[in-house]
Structures are given as structure tokens and as C-alpha cells.
Amino acid sequence: MLTLQFVPYEEIEGLTSNERIRKLLGMVKDERIVVLEGRLRKEEETALIKRTMEEINDRFKGIELSVVYPERRKGTLGRMLKNNITDLLLGQRQGLTVLGPASLIKEIKKDPDKIQLFTQERKGKKKRR
Amino acid sequence: MLDAINKFIQKVLKDLFRKKKHVKLGLYGPPNGGKTTLANRICQDWLGEDMGIVSSIPHETREIKIKEQISIKSGKKELSFNLVDTPGIATKIDYEDFVKHGLSVKKAKERAKEATKGVIDAIKWLDDMDAVIVVLDSTYDPYSQVNITIIGNLQARNIPVLIVANKVDLKKSDMKKIEAAFPQYEVVGISAKYGKNMDNFYDLLFKLVK
């Protein structure tokens, strides 16, 4: 059975980077697939990978991670201003982050606005969700 | 506040002395993209020797490797740099994958442990780089989160980036997909193994490290 856990941005908004990573990684290590509203900061993403590597052992093999968010194409001055104001008001709230244990998720494909999640199967076949 | 002032002073000093020291040029990317093959190609072209061992088993490079004082020339221009070959960055490492490649369980577990340390070291070294070549296997989907995270971090640190679409000699190679995935960056298609399009690569390297 797969457990999907939705995490609203409010749940991580007031946390420090360390606390955010500990919380998310804790859920993943509990064999849950986390769907986070919004995204982590760039440096938090690398810190998440670093912390994951520190915790890898015979049982915990790592994570699969994917982030989707609206693409920001360079446009008119008005559009750039609108994007900047949205960023200022919403922070990292836009988009969606999906992460889960590598023991459950074989692969996450992004194309780039669509996410396909392939889960591990006992017989080694990939199954699309 | 003190931290911000300290960072500012360090940046000013770094910029002041940037031209006097050798530039640190990092090779980053996911495992098996061809970072060490490219490092070997550069070293063979300009020093006549290899830099590291290449293997089809992922995570062959598990330690940071540095080749100092490589000088490349193009016409009257000359560029000197220290080349830093880094372990491939991944979000998962399973020792059983190495067993599938024929390693014993003991050796596979050792390799996995070293590989995790290698990824941590590669991330730690990001801050020390003056410019980075991101080496991607052009036969693979470029939209992996590892690629996006590496490039996003380099962008956030204002580190100049050149993307290499490696293995263009292979039929499945799709350089256009890499260009579409990272439109804000210069992408050069090469075959590090066979030395294809290296002249173009070196021209772009001069542009990257001004």
C-alpha cells in the first residue's frame, strides 16, 4: 500500500531550513510519498540531497525527488513586474514538490509540466501511477 | 549581519585576487555522464596524460580529483585553470545496483558508502568553484531533478555555467532536448570519448572563464 501525504506550505513556512529537511526526510523514511505545496529553496534542495546521503544505509537507499512549478519566461516589463510581485507575496509557495523513498519509487519523470511516478514492484517491473 | 559583512569582504577579496590565481573549473553532473572521460580528454589534449579511471559501473569517481595548472591556448589567448573532477551527484545509492554489475556484496557496500561521501564532498565543493562545466549524458532525459538542482544552485551562487551534452556519437543522443531544458545556458554537444567537437568546446571554455 502506498501512502501519499500532502504537506501544505504553511506547515513548513515558519521552519528553519534544517527543520524543513528533517521533517520531510522523516516522512520519507517512514515510507510515505510526500506531496509538498510549493518548493524548497535551491540551497535547501542540495542540503536535502546531502542529508539524504548522510543517512543512507542498508535499509534506506535514498530518495526520488521532483519539483514542478510554472515556467518563468522572460517577457514584457509588466509580466516581469507581475512575476516579481507574485514571488514577493507567495514566496516559494508556487509549484509542487514530490519526494519519496527510493525503495518505493523507481523513477519520477517530468516533461516538464507533468509528473509521472513509477513505483518499484517486487518482480522488478515498473508500474506507472 | 556580521555574517553578511564577512561574506561581502570575502567576495571583494576573492574578486581582487581572482586574476592572480588559477581558476578552479569544476566538472559536475549526475553519475556516468562522462565527467572523468571529459577530464581525461582535456588532460590528454593539453598535458598528454589521463586524470582518472573511467568505468561503466556508476560512481567510479568517489573522491574529488584535482589536476593543477592546465593551460590551454587558442590563437593569442591562453587560459590556465585547476580542473576539479567531482563524484556524480545522486539522490539515491543502492549497493545492490553494484552487485548487479558483478561486485561482491562486501565490495558493493564499500562502494556505496564511498559514493555517498563523494556526493557530500561534491556538494561542499560547489562554493569553491569559479566556473563549472555541467556534463550531461545526451541520451538521457535532461529533466531530472538532480540536473535542475545542480544548475539552480550554481545560478543562485552566480557561478558561470557551460552545459556539455556528452555522448553525441550515440544514436539515442538528443542535444536539442538539453537545449530546450536549459534555454538560458550555452550548450555544447561533444563526444569526450572520441574527441568530437572539442574545438568548439574549448572556444566556449574561453568565453566561460573570462
Set down the secondary structure blueprint.
The complex is a heterodimer of chains A (129) and B (210).
Chain A: E1 3-7, H1 10-13, H2 17-29, E2 32-37, H3 42-55, E3 63-68, H4 77-90, E4 96-101, E5 105-110, E6 115-119, E7 127-128
Parallel strand pairs in A: 1-2
Antiparallel strand pairs in A: 2-4, 3-4, 5-6, 6-7
Chain B: H1 2-17, E1 23-28, H2 35-46, E2 65-74, E3 77-85, H3 95-100, H4 105-125, E4 131-137, H5 145-156, E5 161-166, H6 175-181, E6 187-189, H7 198-208
Parallel strand pairs in B: 1-3, 1-4, 4-5, 5-6
Antiparallel strand pairs in B: 2-3
Widest β-sheet, arrangement of strands of chain B:
2-3-1-4-5-6
Low-confidence stretches of chain B: none
Strand percentage of chain A, roughly?
25-35%
In whole angstroms, the N-to-C terminal distance of chain A is 13 Å
Largest β sheet strand count, sense and barrel closure of chain A: 4 strands, mixed
CATH class of chain B: Alpha Beta
Q: Mean of residue pLDDT of chain B?
A: 90
Give the percentage of residues in beta strands of chain B. Answer: 15-25%
The tally of helices of chain A reads: 4
Order of helices and strands of chain B: HEHEEHHEHEHEH
Pair with the biggest interface: A-B, 24 and 28 residues
- Would you count the extended β strands of chain A for me? 7
CATH topology of chain B: Rossmann fold
- The radius of gyration of chain B is 17 Å
| Helical percentage of chain A | 25-40%
Largest sheet of chain B: 6 strands, mixed
Number of strands of chain B: 6
Number of spatially distinct domains of chain A: 1
Measured between the Cα atoms of the first and last residue of chain B, the distance is 32 Å
